[in-house]
Each structure stands twice: as structure tokens, then as C-alpha cells.
Amino acid sequence: TKKLRHLNLGKNLIIDIKKDSFKGLESNLEYLDLSQNKLLSIKSFYFENIFNLKTLNLNENQLTTIDKFAF
Questions:
Q1: Per residue in 15-69, pLDDT tens?
Q2: What pTM was estimated for this model as a whole?
Q3: Phi-psi bin for 36: left (phi > 0), alpha (psi -120 to 50), beta?
Q4: Under a CB-based contact definition with an 8 Å cutoff, are residues 49 and 20 in contact?
């Protein structure tokens, strides 16, 4: 079976993500693009279980806060 490794959610006007937004992708996701959205903050533990994540693109958001335990 094929496993999702690259996910591009850029340019989608996303304003918030939830802790379990990537549930089911934890063991395979390597590239996540959240660029050019409207994200203001990254809360604790949002990305803690995405073990194989090598690239996270958050460019061109409106981030003011990234919690200490976000990753």
C-alpha cells in the first residue's frame, strides 16, 4: 500500500490547526507545507508524533507564537 509522505496545504487560508489534524499520518509524513496561510500560532504538541517529518514549511504565515513543546 502507498503511504502519504508529502502533504501540501499551502495557500488554503488555514487559520488554525488542531492537535490531531495529522492523525494517521504520523509514521509516514516527511514533508508538510503549511505556507501562505493565516496561521497565528503553533500550540504545544501539534507535531510531536510526526516522527519522520523532515521538512515543515511555515513561510508567509502570520505567526506570533510557537509554543515551547510544539515539536
A1: 999 888 999 999 999 999 999 999 999 999 888 889 999 999 999 999 999 998 8
A2: 0.91
A3: left
A4: no
